[in-house]
Amino acid sequence: MKLEEFGYAIADATQAIKLDPKYAKAYYRRGTCYLQTLNQQKAVSDFKKVLTLEPKNDTVRAQLQATQKLLRKLEFEKAIEMEGEKNPIDRCREIIAEGGCDLDKTYSGPKLNVTDEGKYLITPEFIDEMIEWFKSGKTLPKRYVWEIVLGAYEHFIKEESLVTVPVEEDATCDVIGDVHGQFYDLLHLYSLTGLPNQKHYLLMNGDLVDRGSWSIEVILTAFAYKWLYPKYMYINRGNHEAKDMNSTYGFEGEAKHKHGDQSYKLFAHVFTTLPLATLICPTQPPRIKKANDILSPEGKRRFFVVHGGLFSKDEVTLDDIRKIPRVGRQPGQQGLMCELLWTDPQEAPGRGPSKRGVGIAFGPDVTKRWCTLNGVSGILRSHEVRQDGYQIEHDGLCTTVFSAPNYVDQAGNKGAFVRINSFGEQEYTQFDAQPHPPMRPMRYVQNGLGSMMM
Ligand SMILES: [Mn+2]
């Protein structure tokens, strides 16, 4: 469970129950795993079972009630969605136009520039000051939050589901893995990568939010750079840029706490506009060709960057991915979008069940076939903590990169990022966790379920 291998944990608990149907702990463990894999209904039945075996267990009773409350909330939200609530982008613009989200005159923090027509503009100075403002424990006014999210949205909405990023001569692109709301580690990471610019692009490979208790600060900083430098800053969607995850792992609670309900709706919608994958395309042929190099039709290396990984079938092409309709959609539990955001590599050949209980696991032969079919030199993915921050797998064709050091304040892992140059050479940099103010992860998880999931 600590490794987030909930699929395995569920199988173990199920076996334990088979051996001893009165083993309360097994139901409890399986219930918490179901909760974390978003099967709230199944979690409720397991918690109920614990209570029939241990009627006086108040902790489990409280967790049952919290889970039932969460379930009711999710059902309620689904019902509202079906009634066709207004698109949050339009609604926020409407509120702004009506003067319903003006800046408070007493606000003394960093200021965005405004044109004569009342249009907000972002500058590098604003972002620097915003970061200092965040470090002093302060939040931005709602209007600025909306302007930043809408400013980034304008670019995401124009991007395809698979973004192509050419790496010109003398330029580099850094691939950053999961950050998970660890703002102080992100600032340290940016000090190592350097900020995005004409010769240096950043690609954040999903899971910027949830778990860490500075997810708002992380996402606003990343979105502010996207707004300022749309051609140097890229962000892929992760499985945590999704409503069901945000309601379980903290971002929804944090966003509402810091900026209110409508701001959360805006974030949740803009998450659906994030591209699903990025193809990094070095523009110069390899200097030294490796024996097993798989090259593009033009004889260059190119790397497929995605949060989770490959698919339950072989024949998926880059074009198929480019055409996936994503806007307004959640990854769900199956299909191409779900698999891109959720799958993991495995050592054994072929495909296996997901240790998480969502998606599948794909073996080295699957990776090799897919790379060969698509002329892709390798896959860079994130989604799983690695003790060294990165790990090269599948005969060098699949690299995992994870950028949340000492994940959730307890994994003891390093963070890492991968730099790709214009020849398609890769360089890895590791880094350690930084001190942060005394605030525990999962601080904003609603319904009192946070401590159970630590
Ligand atoms: Mn993930």
TrEMBL record:
TPR repeats lie at residues 24-57. Residues 236-241 form the Serine/threonine specific protein phosphatases domain. Its EC number is 3.1.3.16. Its cofactor is Mn(2+). It catalyses: O-phospho-L-threonyl-[protein] + H2O = L-threonyl-[protein] + phosphate. GO terms for molecular function: metal ion binding; protein serine/threonine phosphatase activity. Belongs to the PPP phosphatase family. PP-5 (PP-T) subfamily. PANTHER family: SERINE/THREONINE-PROTEIN PHOSPHATASE 5-RELATED, SERINE_THREONINE-PROTEIN PHOSPHATASE 5. This is Serine/threonine-protein phosphatase.
